[in-house]
Amino acid sequence: MNIGIFMHTNYFEDFFVKGLGLSEEEYVNSYHNDFSFDYARLLNKSGIHTTIYNFTQKGDEVRTYQHGVVDCTVKFIPVSKLYKAYCAIPYSHRTPIGKFISQYVSTIQNSLGDILKEDAIDLIYAQEYASGRFERLAHTAKQLNIPIIAAYHGGSIHKWILPIKKRTLHKAAFLTTLNEDEHHSMVAQFPSMSSRIKLVPNFVNSSIFYLRDKETARAALGLKPEDRYIITVGRLFEHQKGHSLLVEAAQHLKNVPHLKILIAGNGPDEQSLKELITQKGLEDRIVLLGSIRDKETLANYYNASELFVLPSRYEGLPLVILEASACGLPTVAFNVMGVRGLVQDGVNGLLVEDLDPSGLATAMQKLLDDPEARAAMGNNAQEIVRINYSEEITSSKLMDLIKESVGIEAAMRLWPIAETEGSLIPKLPILESQTHG
């Protein structure tokens, strides 16, 4: 079976080059730090091949690669002249309607159906159902008579776009959400689709992210053993990630000796963040690590730290919390959508109300001052990940949705009958009802 994953970003250079500082070569040879590559690796274990599609402003020909780390195909499809013309319109991407149109237009490619047909794609996975890209992909899926699954990865449907989505989202075989807040919202907005809206959370690669010896991790990174470390990981994008709030919080922690706050990631707001850190006189307290693409290195940074902090204003379901939790760290974060489903206040971390930097500092100080509470919450964090966010659990949910999406006949054709305990039993889905109340 072949699944085509379409990324939500308008075009590759906008997000991965400008936002993350990646070249196309790095992306296809070594980068594998987002859900698409995790899904490709996971699905490959079930005999499913994945092609990850990105639209691009570079070149005029479709470019195809075999990824250097993950066993999947990566394909770049040039955007049309129509999209390039749309981009020339001033402020064409600024408003929610303009952004929706830009996502729609960027996906208009006359040969898209032929490309997917040539690649023998059996199912389309669209990263964001809120994106204008979904409507174009759903049209192509109908032309090819294949199903489409549309997912939520942090992009909620804007109220101005909702009337459009009420007319189009029914075309999806399933909608998937990452957190219960979004699940409840979507069921309320689309009651006729409630049985096709499923909660499929992120998962952690436990072969990389696990509890390691703290001193060994610090030595591997060249960190001073006498210093104390707090870490956050995320794209430097102030509108969502709120790193300025963490800088403000750090001002309240100047009394903590030898404290270093590590910020891993890069993005469009890196320069303004550097200027804010200098303005606040925190250059010796806050360390910008840049993007950490090697996951083993990232796992060491988690293990070298005493707690994880996430100053985001909103999230989908932040994988970084799961990774840090798997490494035994409690989390301090704001009580916002996408976070409160992961962090139980007083159990595996602390939640702070109202995006209050001083409250964030107080919560961090509380855990820094209480090693027993920190250890207990870290243990709870590990257990929550083990029980609820394992690769096996997510794989099972995904496979069930994929099999039901393609139908029983196709499932029997794509997954041969397997011999189990002396009998022949078809590998067909058994879907449990997901009720969140």
Question: Which keywords apply here?
Answer:
alpha/beta; six-stranded parallel β-sheet; 437 residues; 16 strands; 19 helices
Describe the structure.
- With 437 residues, the protein is an alpha/beta fold.
- Helix content is 41%, strand content 17%.
- It is built from 19 helices and 16 strands.
- The strands form 3 sheets. An 8-stranded mixed beta sheet has the order 3-4-2-1-5-6-7-8, with helices on both faces. Strands 11-10-9-12-13-14 form a 6-stranded parallel beta sheet, sandwiched between helices.
- Helix 5 (96-106) runs parallel beside helix 7, helix 6 (112-118) crosses helix 7 (133-144) and helix 10 packs across helix 14 (295-304).
- The radius of gyration is 22 Å and the shape is globular.
Indicate the topology:
Layout: E1 2-6, H1 12-17, H2 24-29, H3 35-44, E2 49-56, E3 63-66, E4 73-78, H4 81-87, H5 96-106, H6 112-118, E5 123-126, H7 133-144, E6 148-151, H8 162-168, E7 174-177, H9 180-189, E8 197-199, H10 214-221, E9 228-233, H11 238-241, H12 243-251, E10 259-264, H13 270-279, E11 286-290, H14 295-304, E12 307-310, H15 319-326, E13 331-334, E14 349-352, H16 357-368, H17 371-388, H18 391-406, H19 408-414, E15 418-420, E16 423-425
Parallel strand pairs: 1-2, 1-5, 2-4, 5-6, 6-7, 7-8, 9-10, 9-12, 10-11, 12-13, 13-14
Antiparallel strand pairs: 3-4, 15-16
Helix pairs in contact: 5-7, 6-7, 10-14, 12-16
